[in-house]
Structure formats: structure tokens, C-alpha cells
Amino acid sequence: MKHENNDQTTWRCDKCQQELELTKVKVKYMEGNFEVDLPKCPSCHQVFIDEALALGKMKEVEEGLEDK
Ligand SMILES: [Zn+2]
After folding, report:
1. Most CB contacts within 10 A, which of 3, 5, 29, 33?
2. Within a domain: residue 36?
3. 68: which DSSP letter?
4. Which one, of 19, 58, 15, lies nearest residue 37 by Cα?
5. Which of 38, 42, 39, 37 is nearest to 18 (CA)?
6. Mean pLDDT in consecutive groups of 10 residues from the start of the chain, 68 residues
7. Which residues crowd ion ligand 1, with CB under 5 Å?
8. How far is the CA of 40 from the centre of ligand 1 (A)?
9. Does the pTM of the predicted model rise above 0.70?
10. Which residues form the DUF7479 domain (predicted)?
């Protein structure tokens, strides 16, 4: 079975039509602080937090903790 990673979606700011850049943002989750990469517009500096994306990241964090 071939596993392809097609998660690399290009995000654009609705306002500026600029490609969003991933920026490390600190988030608080449960009892810890984590850094997650969130898409940010280089023009208007709006950070886009897609709920599904945020939840996905949280899941990654959880899984990462369980592994270690
Ligand atoms: Zn923008």
C-alpha cells in the first residue's frame, strides 16, 4: 500500500490573497504549553486557526505524549 502525504495545502488570506506562512504559536493545552504551526498572513498578520487543524494538532500532541 502506498501512503502519500497530501496534507500540504496552500492557504491564502481572503483579504490579501497572500500565501500564508506557517508561524509557531504557543498554545495552552491541558497542563502544558505547546508550540504549533499556524498559518499566518505576512501582509495583515492575521492568524488563521482552522478548528479542524487545531484539533488535529492537539491530537498529534496527545499521540506524541503517549508514545514517550
Ligand atoms: Zn491578509
Report:
1. 29
2. yes
3. -
4. 58
5. 42
6. 61 91 83 83 87 68 71
7. 13, 15-16, 41, 43-44
8. 8
9. no
10. 10-68
